[in-house]
User: Which sequence fits this backbone?
């Protein structure tokens, strides 16, 4: 099953240069991925109340082909690739305009039992098993990102506040995109054009907690870590130059 959504980009989603890029695409990716689950009646709009379970995104990967303006609709598609479904679900995502690729990526998610504080299998929510799709899609797998902050440069500290939270009560995934991009100033991104972004979530962060952001920049790659006071990483990311 392929879920398709059409959307006209808005100015509020633009980067500093006035065009929609990584930040906007990441929001679109999460929107279409969650809408897919909502259409199955297996989304976070109903799962917490019905099963006491929520979807938790664990990894994102996105490749940016080109930025876009606001002059035409985007077509967004998502599907679960063919194969045996396990406790971890992968969704492929594609954004195009007039048939031309703008961005593509994949997200990985799993089910989390709120009361039991543990991961659970798909059968716990009666998830359908006949919805995978055999669609051609070229995308490399997720990398193994370093969680070691020693030797990295401290960027800044962010305290988790009300507007960072989602329905689960923890800092919502997309807030980490801004958290990591803000480790650099606009002059950096004028020269470093983002071609690929990968983000892994390692532990939850809650209201009032502090996240310390560390960075390491190479010629064509940036490594980033967000860690709590005890140095335990909550998320790690890698950005590659286009």
Assistant:
């Amino acid at each position: 099953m392929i879920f398709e959504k059409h959307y006209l980009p808005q100015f509020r989603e633009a980067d500093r240069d006035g065009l929609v890029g990584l930040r906007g695409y990441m929001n679109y990716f999460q929107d279409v991925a969650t809408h897919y689950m909502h259409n199955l009646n297996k989304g976070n709009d109903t799962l917490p109340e019905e099963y006491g379970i929520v979807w938790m995104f664990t990894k994102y990967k996105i490749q940016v082909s080109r930025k876009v303006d606001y002059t035409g609709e985007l077509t967004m598609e998502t599907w679960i690739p063919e194969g045996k479904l396990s406790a971890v679900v992968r969704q492929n995502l594609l954004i195009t305009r007039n048939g031309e690729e703008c961005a593509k990526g994949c997200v990985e998610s799993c089910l989390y039992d709120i009361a039991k504080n543990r991961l659970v299998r798909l059968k716990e929510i009666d998830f359908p098993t006949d919805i995978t799709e055999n669609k051609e899609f070229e995308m490399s797998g997720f990398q193994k990102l370093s969680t070691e902050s020693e030797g990295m440069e401290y960027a800044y500290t962010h305290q988790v506040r009300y507007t960072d939270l989602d329905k689960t009560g923890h800092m919502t995934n997309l807030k980490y995109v801004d958290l990591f991009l803000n480790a650099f100033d606009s002059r950096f991104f004028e020269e470093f054009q983002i071609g690929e972004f990968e983000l892994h979530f390692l532990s939850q962060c809650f209201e009032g907690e502090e996240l310390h952001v560390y960075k390491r920049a190479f010629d064509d790659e940036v490594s980033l870590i967000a860690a709590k006071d005890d140095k335990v990483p909550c998320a790690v990311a890698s950005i590659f130059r286009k």
User: Anything to note?
Assistant: The mean pLDDT is 94. The helical segments are 22-39, 47-51, 175-181, 186-191. The first helix runs from residue 22 to 39. Residues 155 and 182 are 9 Å apart (CA to CA).
